[in-house]
């Protein structure tokens, strides 16, 4: 039973500290799952690669193939690692636009590890006051520990009291615990009549119409 993990990075530069943080997190999650004897796989998606597709999706209502592939993997994943840079005290516009283009039920019940990067630690609370409410609104299940990395976390003057590696390991452990307590995600086909007829067939609905009349 393979645990599928979708990793979404909203970094704009190449390379970016946002992608660096995403990579560090997924490696830590792999370490935790390996220690539990769990099979795992992950795909990392850079939103900058599908930025034009996201805009086109918002304008037309249709996702180009590259974006559709990203969204399909995210929808079918057992967990999501979502990392965004913080601009003007909140998640980036590209990150929010992607979520706006994602099916509104895609993350229903999905455990999410939230991560964010910024130039200064003054933005560290953005995970809790901006990102967490957003994913809760989408009916996802953000784990307790989010991982924030300021520019100083990557240098020699990094926080020695609560170092970045320690925070990453704690969040990875929580996500692995959440994954190993649940079965792999099985999402219903939204085009299956049973998905919008309350579990019954189309014939059942027709039979029941006189009673509903």
Task: Please give a handful of descriptors for the protein shown.
44% helix; globular; alpha/beta; 7-stranded mixed beta sheet; 213 residues; 7 strands
Question: How does this structure look, described?
Answer:
This protein is of the alpha/beta class and 213 residues long. 44% of the residues lie in helices and 19% in strands. It has helices spanning 17-35, 51-60, 65-76, 93-101, 126-137, 164-180, 193-196, 202-212; strands spanning 2-9, 39-46, 79-87, 90-91, 111-118, 141-142, 147-150. Strands 1, 2, 3, 4, 5, 6 and 7 form a 7-stranded mixed beta sheet that branches. Helix 1 packs across helix 6 (164-180) and helix 2 (51-60) packs across helix 4 (93-101). The longest helix is centred in the N-terminal third of the chain and has 19 residues, at 17-35. It starts with a strand and ends with a helix.
Reading the helices and strands in chain order gives EHEHHEEHEHEEHHH
| Termini separation | 46 Å
User: What gross morphology would you assign?
Assistant: globular
Measured by DSSP, the beta-strand proportion falls in 15-25%
Helix/strand class: alpha/beta
Radius of gyration: 19 Å
Low-confidence stretches: none
Mean of pLDDT: 88
Q: What kind of assembly state do the chains in view correspond to?
A: single chain
Helix content: 40-55%
Q: With helices defined by DSSP (H or I, 4 residues minimum), what is the helix count?
A: 8
* Counted beta strands: 7
Helix-strand layout with pairing:
Blueprint lengths: L1 E8 L7 H19 L3 E8 L4 H10 L4 H12 L2 E9 L2 E2 L1 H9 L9 E8 L7 H12 L3 E2 L4 E4 L13 H17 L12 H4 L5 H11 L1
Parallel strand pairs: 1-2, 1-3, 3-5, 5-6, 5-7
Antiparallel strand pairs: 3-4
Helix pairs in contact: 1-6, 2-4
